[in-house]
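Dear colleagues,

As part of the handover before I leave the project, I'm documenting each prediction I ran so the next person doesn't have to rerun anything. This entry is a single chain, and its sequence is reproduced below.
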Amino acid sequence: MAFANRISDLARTLAQYPTFVTVMDNKVDVRTKEQLGTLSAETAKLEALAAEGDTAIVNGTCTDPAGLSSRLSFNASQISSLLTAFAAQDSERLKSMSIISKQKFDGYAKNRLGAEKRFSDEVSTLLTQEAKAVAGLAKSESGKPDAKPDTGTESPSTPKPEDRVKPPPSKIPSVQDTISALPGYLRATIPEIVKKYDDAALSTQSKSYADAAIKLGANSSAAVRIYVVLVFTFGPDFLSSTTKIGWVNDIINNPQLGTIDQRILILRNAVEMRRKLDLPI
């Protein structure tokens, strides 16, 4: 199981880097026990997911290749989001250090933090590659009746393959379709937040936020939906190119994290992680 084993190897390599440094004769955590526990749990979850993908690849089939591929792709950025949440947590934890001590800490902690970044990038690449491999698998069928024996004759009532009516291709919703469906989506997803809006006001406001997402650079329906939910939840100033929230700015204005669509997804994951860690949003 190549992908799962590779993630396990990377985790063992990361574990060799020290999790504390000595500054002014004091031991200072680069990573606290709580952070290490969270990182270990997240890594174990991704290993299990990768093992599921490995099994499907070995078998050559999967009961739901599209669904498994989507889960692999979605989780590719989870470690990166977790480390972003750690960075915010560290800022609070270390803000009492003097400038000189903080400079020394940053210098000593560089190796560990660099190793975490490499770990995050490699895990993301592995899960993205596996997602593509799984997406190309055939869909396995359960409960399929045995094929009828070939008698050499064909029933007159059995239509030939070329005579069978092909179903129309499924329509992939466009961004505009997504915008039109936003009011119903929001009523189902964040009912308490949008209950103060009547249908007309909700339609107008959701379209305004969706237009802002597109102006920011969002191209996919998923990114537009996430953007709209976030700004309804935290306010329009939360997610913008001029946001004054440090950790949000570090994500949304960092092109190294990918496209705007990818950065919006990372931001959503970071919000979830910060909630788990009881950090302010």
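The first helix runs from residue 2 to 15. The longest strand covers residues 20-23.

All the best with the project,
I.
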